[in-house]
Write a structure and sequence with these properties.
The structure is a single chain. By secondary structure, the protein is an alpha/beta fold. It is built from eleven helices and nine strands. The chain is globular.
């Protein structure tokens, strides 16, 4: 394997664009595709090639990386690319697709002779742009030398969770991690909403927890987005967060666990989206506490 790879990136939204950019900056050839081509075009400034179809993007690629909305979208796009997929190609599946969909995608990989790597990432816009994501990866040891340069380009750390991507061990860990992220986000919104309703200065709350076990950088970061009115561009959009929350709830149900906080968070996110906040940062779940959007 040469040091330079040809990497196909399918999906250039918030995360996919940043990942494609960092792969290109690492010296690899990148072919990017997005359903809305305008979202991929800015990558040409970093040396990436923009493909018109998924098949064009994956032809003769060493690695195919998918970073799309959900598992169903990934499967649809990969089916569009199927005729151009080369047996033996490494498929890095980074979309948060959930457990059931990961199995379906792995089955597609087997059918087409692809080396399947279940590889969701932890991190949002800023760490993605900085190449500081954490990659959670599961897949065959033979062939890891091909995907490792891609992981190194997009992330600061790779945590291997197993050798069988089809088992979904990386995706399972991603759901566990996201359950905490979503719970913390929902709690941040509710504490600010209650402070507003009770006419309490949020800074007084921050002061009483400062430096103690209840204090956390994430609370301050998400609260600042609301208090400063900087919910766009989103680091992790409301609509995507709702999708992930429902994947978490479903995973719990299928394994005999009731996840009340995750279920309530999904509903809060759905209400915020219905109020017009779907494309804003998930901190905008705050607005679900009110019938109408209040001033921050």
């Amino acid at each position: 394997m040469t040091d330079k790879l040809t990497v196909s990136v399918l999906g250039t939204g918030i995360m996919g664009a940043a990942m494609a950019r960092n792969i290109a900056r690492a010296g690899h050839t990148v072919r990017a595709w997005n359903r809305t081509r305008d979202k991929a075009e800015p990558l040409t400034a970093d040396g990436a090639q923009v493909a018109g179809t998924p098949a064009e993007a994956v032809r003769d690629a060493d690695v195919v990386l998918t970073m799309l909305y959900d598992g169903a979208t990934v499967l649809q796009v990969m089916r569009e690319a199927a005729d151009a997929l080369r047996p033996g190609t490494a498929w890095v599946q980074s979309t948060t697709a959930g457990i059931e969909a990961t199995g379906e995608l792995a089955a597609f990989a087997r059918e087409h002779g692809l080396a399947f790597y279940d590889a969701p990432v932890l991190g949002t816009r800023q760490p993605a742009e900085a190449g500081q994501l954490t990659v959670l990866a599961a897949g065959p040891a033979e062939g890891r030398e091909t995907v490792t340069p891609v992981f190194d380009a997009v992330g600061a750390r790779t945590l291997w969770t197993g050798q069988d991507g089809a088992a979904g061990s990386a995706s399972r860990l991603k759901l566990v991690a996201n359950s905490w992220v979503l719970a913390a986000t929902a709690a941040t919104g509710e504490v600010l909403a209650l402070a507003k309703a009770l006419d309490v200065d949020p800074q007084k709350f921050f002061d009483i927890i400062a430096g103690g076990p209840l204090d956390m950088g994430y609370l301050h970061a998400k609260a600042a987005l609301l208090l400063n009115g900087t919910l766009t561009p989103a680091s992790f959009a409301v609509a995507t967060a709702e999708k992930d929350a429902r994947l978490i709830v479903r995973a719990g149900q299928e394994h005999g666990v009731r996840l009340d906080v995750a279920a309530a968070t999904a509903e809060r996110l759905a209400r915020a989206a219905a109020q017009g906040h779907a494309d804003e940062d998930m901190a905008a779940a705050y607005f679900a506490s009110f019938e109408e959007k209040p001033g921050s």
